[in-house]
Amino acid sequence: MSSKIRKVVFPVAGLGSRFLPATKSIPKEMLPIVDRPLIDYAVEEARKAGIEHFIFITGRGKGAIEDYFDHAFELETTLSERSKSEALAALSTTQLRHGAASFVRQQQPLGLGHAIWCARDIIGDEPFAVILPDEVVRHERGCLAQMVDAWGDKGGNIVAVAEVPDDQTHQYGIVSPGDDDGRIAEVKGLIEKPSPGTAPSNLAMTGRYILSPEVFGKLKKGSLGAGGEIQLTDAMAETIGDVPFHAVRFDGERFDCGDKAGYLAANLAYGLAREDIGPRLLELMPGIINTLER
Ligand code: UTP
């Protein structure tokens, strides 16, 4: 078994129906926060965690993601001829080491669990990470790097969790905790979107996982869970007892960019923090708020 987390899976084959009509022709993962698409932030986080191979689970209409991480010969030559060095430098995050990216087609959007199962041949028999690009975590080291530290200590499966208010637990996969040191909690059970008032804790899973390859055996059974999709949560829950399983509370600010308000909040937070546009954005804000109050 590998002693390092070398590979990450980005499931990007979802329909993005909450962002229609924009997502009719643009993948949700290509929506920008300021000037970089969501998927770019996810790749950056994976790099910071020491990931070497990036696996994208794509579907119909997701070709823009593949193009984004390719060399754009004409664009680069034109920018270079025009001495646009700043614009050229902005492309640096889009360049992956040759051979370090794989694109796997999920022929039908059968859910997150199925999307991850589609990566089984490329992952093989080693632990791997999963990042959902529509969950963005703002932190200098990154959320996944913190999880890799915890994995170095505990091994097995690791999920990132955040505490959510009681009236929101029904929207998330919730952890039933065992021993808990205030940062890392042992996972005794997992429940996807519990009915209001029945959640075993407030610890909600937030789109980052380190998984032991045993999970593929559980996903293989292809059982359909809530919503008629192959549920990752159910497959992970089945590994409890077979492999160590822990939840990590991470440092950093989390934005649910699969949701319109969360996405706009991320744009504001990242925009306000930028030296080049933050001050101007701050100047514009009172005007926007005044129009609302009128
Ligand atoms: P979401 O639940 O956010 O679904 O999926 P979605 O299709 O992206 O968006 P909505 O709900 O229709 O607006 C969580 C993650 O799992 C991926 C999505 O691309 C997203 O990153 N996913 C989901 C797949 O790759 N395949 C699927 O079949 C379902």
Structure report:
The chain has a single domain, classed as Spore Coat Polysaccharide Biosynthesis Protein SpsA, Chain A (Alpha-Beta Complex), CATH 3.90.550. The mean pLDDT is 92. Helix content is 33%, strand content 24%. The chain is of the alpha/beta class and 294 residues long.
In the CATH hierarchy, what is the superfamily?
A: Spore Coat Polysaccharide Biosynthesis Protein SpsA, Chain A
Mean pLDDT metric: 92
Bound molecules: uridine 5'-triphosphate
In DSSP terms (H or I, runs of 4 or more residues), the helix count works out at 11
In helices, the fraction of residues equals 25-40%
Spans of at least 5 consecutive residues whose pLDDT stays below 50 are none
Order of helices and strands: EEEHEHHHEHHEEHEEEEHHEEHH
CATH topology (fold) name: Spore Coat Polysaccharide Biosynthesis Protein SpsA, Chain A
Portion of residues in beta strands equals 15-25%
What class, by secondary structure content?
Answer: alpha/beta
CATH architecture descriptor name:
Alpha-Beta Complex
Overall body shape: globular
